[in-house]
Specification:
Length: 209
Amino acid sequence: MQFVAFERAKQGTGASRRLRNSGKAPGIVYGGTAEAQLIEIDHNALWHALQKEVFHSSVLEMEVNGQTSKVVLRDVQYHPFKRQVLHVDFQRVDDKTRVHLKVPLHFEGMAESQAVKVENCTVTPLIHELDVICMPANLPEFIAVDLSGLNSKSALGLQSIKLPHGVKAVVRGANKNPALVSIKLPEVAPDAAAAAAPAPAAPAKKGKK
């Protein structure tokens, strides 16, 4: 995905405020062998780009002063209540250096699974994105997770999915195989449970002496 930025000469709170008032968003790009560079981006174009998942999880091509460099999005600061980007950070990347980025998980086949279609379970994703390390050329836009084989007794953890070639998951904490989804059986209403329970046996009648 490509976007255009412009070199920004002035910095500081006042300069950034004037920049936002003119319909631009201030930012910075850093990393690599070059020095950090102050940039500005058309706010509307940036806002629409930020609504796309690929803008957050891909190597981007940024053009500044006619020169194109590869970058990844590192941070976005939003206004507390306005639809406004206050500041955006990018990091330069190259083909020989691994990148550490969050990649979204796409859960597929849930509706066709036995857990949902037959057992009427509620399946809730617990993890929506995954920290990964890989070379830029191997960075996936997303990782697909097939849920079509789920049933009520399934235990789907991170180690159950096959990651793309060259991609390694970064897991923090003691649990190296965190659950990806929660599977909850349907609740049974008390009246229905009572109706389903077997009726108590009638007491045997005593015979006449």
